[in-house]
Structure formats: structure tokens, C-alpha cells
Amino acid sequence: MNRLLNPLLKKINRTNKASISMRLRLFFFLMILVLTMAGGIIIILLVTGTFTAGITESRRLIKNELQHASNNISMQYGQLSLQAVSFSNDISQRINDKLKEQNLTFSQLSQHPKQLEQLLSDLFENTYYSLQKCKGSGAFVILDTTVNPSLVNANQSKVGLYLKNMEPNVISASNPTFTLLRGFSSIGRNNSINLHTQWSMEFDISNADYYIQPILAAKNNISLPLSKLYYWSIPQIIPGTSEDVMLCSVPILDSNHNIYGVCGFEVSAMLFKLLHMPDNSTYSRMFCMFSPYQNSRVEINHSLFAGGYSMRDFSKKDVTLIVKEHHTSFDDYNIKDSVYLGYHKPIQLYPDGSSFSEDIWITAILLPKEDIVNSITLINVVLACLLCMLVVMGIIISVIFSNKYLKPISQGIRAIKLGSEEDLPKTNVQEIDDLIYYLSDYKKELNRKIEQDKYQITKLENFINNTKTLTPAERSVFNHLINGLSAKEIADTMFLSINTIKTHNKRIFVKLEIASREELLLYISMLKEIGLELI
Amino acid sequence: MKKIFIVCVVIVILVPIITLTFTLIKMKEKEPITLTLWHNYGGQMKNTMDEMIEEFNGTIGKKEGVIINVTSISGSSTLHDKLTMAAKNDPGAPTLPDITTAYPKTALVLANKNLLVNLDEQFKEDELAKYIPRFIEEGRLNTDKLYVFPTAKSTEVLFVNTTIFDRFSKATGVKLEDLSTFEGIQNAASLYYDWTDRQTPDIANDGKTFYVPDSQFNLSLIGCEQLGTHLIKNNKIDYSSPDTKKVWEQLFLPAVKGNYAIFDGYASDLAKTGDIVCSTGSTAGVLFFSPKVTYPDNTSEEAKLTLLPYPTFEGGKKIAIQRGAGMCVIKSNKKKEKLAGIFLKWFTSPENNLRFVSSTGYLPVTEEAFGDIMLKQIDSISDENIKNLLFVSREMQINYDFLTAPLFDNVDVLQSNYEKQLRLTATESRKTYRNLLNTIGKEDALDQATRGIYDKFARESE
To answer: N or C: which end of chain A has fewer CB within 10 A?
Structure first.
């Protein structure tokens, strides 16, 4: 019996060893799907620039802020320049009128301190209202004369008027916050204006570019109108004060181009900071810088800053920022061991043809490099983690799904193996259900066939055993029979009568429990099929 | 096997989540929060404040993720106006900052609008114990909550320009010690007026003013206390008190005679132009006194400043005012409030407090800084005026009692009205007095110019 089933079992085992389980196969299939999806997502993210979106977004943000800041600065400084020119015209007119009234020439004023004080008292009103109207933090008039020419350094001391608005960004008509920084104390007291804590009577113009430059320009360019003679000083702390200011000064000229002095407006570092602070909701350390620019260098101490952070280190002087421009990414701004990223844009402070049109000023929006790097790293770490989580979730789902999906199949096969055909599981997948039922039917058929084969094998075994009961004579006849000879041919071969052969045949048939010669041949054929021969 | 699989799955899920969380936290920590600050440490004090804030931003601020951004530097009265405007949401008012310096009267307005953080939440008991108790008490604004944190305090002292005083002293025999009482100052002022008047014999009655108090209200308040009464009763000025009148007259009569200046501003303004010789004012004003006096012809001379303890009324107790703005934190969110607390702790640590004090003229706020540290470091202070000031302040800490200004709703209005009315009345009476001098003698002129004025003043300033 075993001898008969072994070949079949061997065949099945061989098949099992060579194949991968369906569950694993399904898992691998799903994994390929997951990885393909993840790969696809990565490709889409790469193609759409999502990984570099942080940089792109930051660049866009900084460029927008730069545009906004440069527009505002341009407008503020442009307006102040125009107002300073108008202020100069008014002051010039007032001085002319007053000199006529006093019957004095401008050069005689230094010999008439009372008249000089009166003149400046007269200019107070213009200065006060001009300051109120403008977007500046101070207004000044410096006349090319002094109260006391006999003093030491009198040539560096100039009389004038300097009003400072301590709160230029607060609208408070009821309580003006003007103080007198320079000028006769009597002017302040007569007009209920307190002296600034750093008040001095006169201006010290030694190294005062805001005084020297416009006057030189006026002297050297007689034909130029005032609108081309105004000058913006570099941000600086005026001697005797403590705040950085930038001054727009315009020469005060009479109709004969005689120079009375300069006048103009101030933009304090605080006002600049309050007016031009960039939106730091995304980058809290983003700041705006306004500076003179020369050979890709910016002097930090000659710059104004707006924002929650400034690169200025008060303990260090004369620090230079080196600018490296890049067309494809942020510009670099290097200062010793610190790097800032951002963009800058030139601001046109002067009209074409101005004496100072060669001065280059820039507005820059900057932030520490680490802030941008951190921000981009953050976005990419988030993306990478999300992708990782997606793949992990894919693996888990694949495992669960392949298990869940193949469970009924495994159970079905197990049931089929165990023979419990009645409780076949349903996967609700038509093909798999068909396969399970097919396998079940196949097994039934196989069993039936095996039963049938078992019966036949029993019969064959009986047949073989029965052949052993044949007498030698019957065996000879039997051998001829299985060789396909007819009774007559056997009689001729054995030299026996036909009747003797027929008698042998009858006995053989009885002993072998068969009914005919055809049945005998069938048995012989069956034995041959399974490779057995009767010896 | 199944357990191992589950553990692996959990690990595989947790690793990216934990990585992500840590990265986010780390990034968040690195992203600093900006706190806006308004303060009144302008002028010569600005550099010290700038340097300290820059240092904080570069050290503790960097570590804790906070940037202090100064968005306003104003005088204390302007700051008061700005803060009250902002608190009331007046048109054109700026947005309130995260931290601001404020006097108690300003803080009271903000506290009444529930805008201030109770700083008890930011400081442990033992931390608060390091500060001088009466400074902490003042910051509680008569409540159980700490609204104004003492950062730098001050008292009032007498500032004397001894360059001018020495000349005057030589001519008249008046000594610095004579200025220890208000009566002595009054007498010296009268002599000074006459002395300066005599210097221009061709112009009559053009003597110069000698003294001005920075705050007439503070002088009246402390004067009454020195005399044993209170200027304010039931949240009103007690004009019926003879001591109130005495103190008022001590201010008013010399002003009418031209001995005291009538001025709406800081005494240091007048000192710059030599229009006064001495003044009482906050120790914090020491830096505002110019080292030179400039005259109308632009000539100038060195102005040596001497500081003396706050004068007293004859027979009165040694009492001086305790003043100085502290810092308030405006309500925002817990994170910002905590960071503001960190800044206040840093700013008032004995080392930093003394550093600030030694370059500004304020007084330290911690027991430690006020004690041995100050004594040890006082000699290293380069500014002679500040050095003198700290010596005088320390002497006053030992010999004087200190009084904080009363605090109640509209105390600022009451103070402002009192001073405004005093200046107005004194100006009018001075004008009358000067006119009367053309016809009658000084005593009669003064009597006529000031008769019934106190009652008028009391009525109109209420």
C-alpha cells in the first residue's frame, strides 16, 4: 500500500520546498506597493520642491519683507528730504525778513547776540511746526555764526536750534514731547519746552558731516537747486548725546547763494526701529538694517536697525559686515564668526545729478543663518518622520492584511487536510472560495479514487495470490493465455487437444476468480501498468 | 514570537515619533521669544541700559530663548502718559509692551485695569526675601499682589552747585551746613537774591533764584511728615492743617520774592544755565546735572556738584521720600511672563544691580547689594557724583526714615493739580509783587501780593 502512495507524497513535498507561502508572497506584494507609494511620494516631494520649500518660502518671505521695508524707508526718507528742502526755503525766507527788519547782514549777527537770539526765537515756530508735520524725530537749524566769537574753538561752535521729539511715534496733541537739545535755553523756557538732558547751547561742528558736507556741496555746485544739495549723514551719535541719529541736512541759501547754514530733520535709531520693524512672527530674530554700502562692506556702527535682534555688539567698535551675493540662494553677510542670511536692496536717497548721488545706501532684511537652517531642518525632519511613519504603517498594515486575508484560506486548507469538508470557511473572495471548493472536491474525488484503487489493488493481490494455486499444467496454459494465445493455438503449441485446454482454462478461471479470457488480460494489463509482472 | 513582533512594531512607530517630538521641542527652544521693554533710563543712563540688555540677550537670554527689545525710552512723566493712554486704549496710543518701568501711581492705573502680572508667581519666597522689604511692600500697591518689582530705587537729596555756592559763601558767610534745613535754604536764598541783585546795581530787583524742588508735591508731603502731620487725609490734601500751610508758605513766599524758581521741569535744566544753585530731587537725577554751567553768552564754567542729605524743617524729624520706578510685567501668556521674571531676576541680581546703580545714580534693591558689596565697590566707581551720592544715600539709610507717596485712585491727578496750581498762583503773585515793588516796600508788597492766596489756592487746587 505505502509502496503505492509514496511517489505521490514525494511529489507534494517537493512542491512545498520550492515555493514561498502565499502569506509571505502577499506581504511582499503589499510591501512593494507601500514602498512604491513611499518612493512615489518622495519623487513627488522632490519634483514639487517640498524638501526645499523651507528655503523657497524663507526666501519669498524675506524678499517680501525687504520690498515692504525698502518701500517704507524710501517713502519716509524721500518725504523727509522734500520737507527738509521746503524747511530750508522757509528758514531762508525768515532769516532774510528778520535781517531786513533788524537792518543787519548775516555776518553782523555774531556781533549782535541779542538779535541772534531773537532771530532764532523767530525760527522756533517754523522748526516746531515742521517737526510736528514730518515723520522725523528731530528738527534742527544750524547757522554759520556763533554767539560769542571770542571763545576758544568758536569757529567750531555754531548757533542754532535743535528740537527733539522724544515720542515721535505717539500721537498726543495734549502733551507734546519736544525738548530742546541745542539752542538758547530762553527759547525753550519761553515756549514751555524743557531742555534735553544733554542740552548744550551751540552745535559743535568739528567732524560734523551733516554740517560740512551740504555746505561744501553748495559751495562747489552753485547752479544746483536745493533738491540736489541735501545730504543724509551716516547714522552716528552726535557728540554730547547718546542716541544714534541720521540727519538730513539742507544748506540754507539766500537768493545770492550766500550760505546761512544748514537745516533739516533727524531720524533717531528708536524711530527707525519703531517704523521699520519687520514682521517677526515667522522668524523672531529677523531684522531690518539700513546702511551705507561700499565695496560689499557695511559698517555696523553706522547702520540703523529695526527688529527684535540686532547684530550690533555695543562692546565692540568698528565692526564690518562683508556681503557675499549669491544669485541662486540667500546672500551671505559675514561678521567675524557669525553668518547672517538675507537680501539687500539699494535705496535711492538722492535724485540724479545730486552732489551725493554716488553714495550707496542699502536696506537689508537679515537673520542669523542658524535660524533658517533650523527652520528648514525642522520641515525636513517632519517630512522624513512622516514618511517613516507611513512606511511603518504600511508594513504593519501589510502584515495584518496578509494575515487576515489568508487566514480563511489557511483554515480552509487545514480543514481540507483534516477532512472536515462540511465547515469550509468563506473568504468572500470568489476565486479563493472557488479554489477552496475545488480543492475540497478534488480531495473527495481523490479519496474516492484511492478507495477505488484500494479495491482494485486488493483484487490484483488476490489475483496474484490465486495464480500461485495453479498446477504446473494450468500455469503453462495461463502463461500462454497472458501471452495472448487462443485456445486452439495453445493446444497446437502444447500438443494437447482443444478440449484439454478448455478444461484447463475453466479451472484457471475458477481459481483466479475471473469469468473470461478478456478479464484475465485486463488483470495482466493492470499489473503491467503498476510495473509488476507475474513470475 | 508575536510579542517580539509587537515590541518591534511599537519601537518602529515610537522612534520617528520621539525623534520628531524632540526635534520640535529642540527647535522650539531655540526659537527665542521677543519681549518688548519700555524704560525711562534715557540720556546718560541709556548706554548702561543698552549694554546690560545686550549682555542679557547674548547670555541668559540666549540660553532661555528670550530677546529683550527696547521699544521706548521716555522720561518718567511721558512714560506715565504713554502707559495710561495705552491702558485706556486712547486713539493713537501705542500697544503696551511686555515689561515696563513704572512708578506706583502709573502701575495702579494698569493694575486697576487688570493688566499687570502678579510677580509673586515668578519669585519664590526666599528669592523675594533678598530684596529690601519696604521696596517690595511699595510694589504691592496696597494689595497682597506684587505688581511693581523693585529694580532700582531712589530717594531725594539736596544737589548744590558748589562752584557758585562757594563764591556766594565767600561773600555772605552762608555755609553748606546752613542748607540742612528748609528754613536755612530759605534764608540763604534770600541772601543769594540780594547778593546777585547787587552785582547789577543799574538794574533793580534782578536777583537770581537760589533753589527749586523737583517736586513741590513731594516736598509738601515730606515736609508735613517731618513736622509730624500728614499732607493727605482721606485721599485729599488737608488744607486746614497749619503744617500744610507752613510747608506751602515755605515754597510759595520765596517763589513770590524770586528767591525760589517757579519751574515746570527738572531742576537740572535750571542748573545747566546757572539759574539755580541748589535743588532737591531724585538721586536718579544726578547724571542729568551737567558738569558745566552755560551762560547766555555761551561762556561756561565747571559746575562742581555736592550732594547733601535731604533737608528737614527745623525741629522736624529726619524723613525722606522713597521713590523710583520699578518694573511691571504686562499680562500676556505664561511663557512670556516667566521669561520676564527671568529678566527681572537677572537685572536685579546684586552684581548687575550694583553695576546699574554705580553708573546711574539709583539705589540698589537687594540687601546684599546695599550692604557690603556696595561699600566694597564704592571706591571703584569712576563718577565722583555717583560715588558721593551713594555715600549720602547710605548715610540717609542709617539716619532717615523713608516714606512712600500715598497711593490711591487719581493720586496722580491730585499731585498734578497741586503742583500746577502752586506754579500758577506763585507766578501770578510774583507778577503782582514785582509791580508793587515799583510803588511800595518789599514787605508791604509781599503782604499785598500774597494776602488770601492760600485759601484761594486751596479752593482752586481741589
So the answer is: C
